[in-house]
Design brief:
There is one protein chain. With 265 residues, this protein is mainly alpha-helical. It has ten helices and no strands.
Length: 265
């Protein structure tokens, strides 16, 4: 436990699992193609590269749009709206539940119950209530992520030292001043970390909603081509979604460290 890798060693160790996975895939793909030249389950890297070229750089014959970027823009817009609204709701209600005992007694049990509802189970209800357009997809992300953010932030507020609240009130701070000037700055790093943890579920809800009812989007495209067993398109799309999620997580981590350096000392 006292042996730490160097900077180069850390990079090499981080790359090692990816190299192993890629090697296993290439070998397995070659073996399946040797047995069955028409196998579609594990397409060679060359076929996936050709599929990426088609969807990322060539206009679609039917719509004239470049499919990958159109799908990415549609999905990211839905994800940004859903996560943005969920984050705002989580911040407001998490702060209120954590600071105000009356609000906590009223809303904390309700939020606890709502957080236990599987969002995918109510997806048909959302489609019936909000229709098959953009609203139902955004609402699904909000419902799936919002209660978690509320509970996480309210717990973060409750974990703050009580002495800070007492000292602020002793100096004449009002409830509003305590919430905004004492509590809020300290839970912002926790909020960013909670949003980072919510990226995976948010993408899951987004892809699921797009797969059922959408005319564009990353999830829509994956489930559209699955009927043709087009793994040469599906696998690059999955890799692209993973890369987008990783870049968003990395950007949020850098933002948190740059904005709140005191939280990481």
């Amino acid at each position: 436990m006292n042996i730490a890798p160097s900077r180069i060693g850390r990079l090499m160790l981080a790359l090692l699992p990816f190299v192993l996975i890629a090697t296993i895939y290439v070998v397995a793909s070659a073996e399946r193609r040797a047995v069955n030249p028409d196998d579609k389950l594990l397409p060679p890297v060359s076929e996936m590269a050709d599929a990426v070229r088609r969807v990322a750089f060539e206009p679609d014959r039917r719509s004239g749009e470049i499919v990958l970027w159109t799908d990415t823009a549609a999905s990211l817009q839905r994800l940004a709206l859903g996560l943005g609204i969920a984050t705002l709701i989580g911040l407001v209600f998490g702060l209120a539940i954590g600071v105000l005992p009356m609000v906590s007694a009223t809303l904390a049990p309700l939020v606890a119950v709502l957080s236990m509802i599987p969002p995918m189970a109510i997806l048909p209800v959302l489609f019936i209530v909000f229709g098959l357009g953009e609203l139902s997809k955004v609402v699904l992300i909000v419902i799936g992520v919002g209660p978690f953010l509320i509970r996480d932030l309210s717990l973060a507020v409750a974990a703050l030292p009580a002495e800070q609240i007492v000292k602020a009130q002793s100096l004449g701070a009002s409830t509003w001043q305590v919430a905004i000037r004492v509590v809020l700055p300290q839970i912002m790093p926790r909020l960013i970390d909670a949003v980072r943890l919510s990226l995976g579920p948010a993408f899951l809800f987004l892809i699921s909603a797009e797969a059922i009812a959408a005319e564009s989007g990353l999830g829509y495209r994956i489930f559209l081509v699955r009927r043709f067993l087009a793994m040469d398109v599906i696998l690059p799309y999955v890799a692209w979604i993973t890369l987008l999620a990783y870049l968003m997580d990395y950007a949020l981590a850098r933002l948190s460290r740059a904005t709140f350096p005191w939280a990481y000392k």
